[in-house]
Amino acid sequence: MRSDPDPDWNETLDSLVSPTYEGINYILLLLAFQATIYYKCRERNEMKHNKTSRSHTQLAHTIDKMIRSRIMSLLTTRTRSFEVSFSSGSGQDYTKFG
């Protein structure tokens, strides 16, 4: 991944639309970008309607936690899918040993 983000909005969007990154890096970059936009909009609405705001550190922690949760949910879903496809139709479950 590139080390310095480009402050030009059009340049940033162009780099997200045309995948210049490989595989999982591109997916994680999109996820981080989407989460950041979502939580920034949510923060703006909280400020507008409820007159409350969070610090940048709290917002970064929330975004980090959401990304980690999303990754874990994908890993858990993939593991369950593997376990279901690995058990046979005869009732023998090959995912349990012993």
Explain what this protein looks like in three dimensions:
The protein has helices at residues 9-17, 23-50, 56-86. It has a domain at 1-67. It is an all-alpha fold and 98 residues long. It is built from three helices and no strands. The longest helix is centred in the C-terminal third of the chain and has 31 residues, at 56-86. It is flat. The protein starts with 8 loop residues before the first helix and ends in a 12-residue tail after the last helix.
| Annotation field: number of helices | 3
- N-to-C series of helices and strands: HHH
Please compute the radius of gyration using only Cα atoms.
20 Å
Helix content: 55-70%
Instruction: Pick out the low-confidence regions.
Output: 92-98
Keywords for this entry:
disordered C terminus; mainly alpha; 0% strand; 98 residues; 3 helices
Strand-helix topology:
Elements: H1 9-17, H2 23-50, H3 56-86
Helix pairs in contact: 2-3
Summarize the structure.
By secondary structure, this protein is mainly α. It has helices spanning 9-17, 23-50, 56-86.
